[in-house]
Amino acid sequence: MALATSLTTVQGFNGALREFQTVLTVDQRRQLQEIKTVPDTDTVLVFTAQLDAQNAKRKGRSVATRLPTFLQCARGFSAVVDTFVSSHPEIAALVWGRIKLTMLIITNFLSYYESLTEFFLDLGRICPRFAEYRTLYPTSTRLQKSLCQFHAAIVTVCKHVVETLQRPWQQQLLKTFRGPLEEEFKPDRANIERCSDDVKEELVLAKSQADFQEQQLQERERQKASKSRLKLKNFTARTDDKLDHIGPWQLNYEKRRAAERKQQLLDSLSKHDYLTPFKQSRRKRYPGTATWLFETPQYKAWFDGAGSQVLWCSGKIGSGKTILSAGVIDYVLLEKRSSETLVAFFFLRFDDQESLKAENILRSIVRQILQSATSAGELESLLEDASLDPWAGLRDISTLLEKSVNRLKNLYVVIDGVD
């Protein structure tokens, strides 16, 4: 029964992916075929910067900055979906490609751009967070199923959006008279919200099952450690049927522990929220802001690595240096895109005393560099080599930073507010 249910879920998921293509034009299908990359940790930042660059002539503040929460939901799912849909290894790129293409199509319809980005901003508020299911997803088939159904609903609403935008203008005008655009997608939102509630329920169940399995494994270890063979024999006789599950449980437990260990190691480096100040600065930026800087000889020399490795931009308080820093980050994300190039950043905030400490700045930058490490073992090795622990001082952090930088071909670091 479980196998049949999983098969039905996969078929429904693949069906949603196929249906999306039926509303595309020939050029859009060709464009979709070109989106084959699996999203990585920087993908959302890069893509929203691209959207703003394409809408540079639009008046007002950045609109694409409304989308990261929704897009991050899709990116997180793309990172794990192949665990469930193993027969379709490129599934992550297919999911991300459809969502990305939808956003690109929306940018061509300025009259709808504002309302549709608001719609996806609203959807982002009910999307499951990757951090909530990251360690539970690989070992819970029910959770995998509910997340597939949720993202199938997301792909379906993307299809509806594209379909709506491509209607003849007469039909669009008629729809406008009948009611606002939000009414058009009300059933889609209701379906997505229902799927989101299902995911929340499965998360609770998966957590309970994981806790139960861990308790059973701990009980078994205690029994094995017992010196009384008689007690161990009696326990084994009573629980033969339970012990059949120990192998898979042990494997699931080890997978969860490895994922949790990696997260703990990253958190031991830094838990500082470096993204929020950047997102806030992005929202305040208007199209075209900071482009003058990119034309200066000093910036070009720094960016190309042909001059000083340090570019210092000073100015009075309130002159726009923070907005300028956000523009530089977006520029680097867009222009220097490869697996061997990374941009790390940090915004000092005078209302946050912890952000003003040199050690915390370096810790955050090191974490950004190392969060792409493949495993907990790789992270652990780096931290041990640098003799780093939660109480390490500035010198130890600097040593780890040097080791971390050696992993990359190019590294750009943008720090705002040092002066």
UniProtKB/TrEMBL annotation:
Residues 288-419 form the Nephrocystin 3-like N-terminal domain. Keywords: Repeat. Residues 69-206 form the DUF7708 domain. InterPro entries: DUF7708, NPHP3-like_N, P-loop_NTPase. This is NACHT domain-containing protein. It comes from Cephalotrichum gorgonifer.
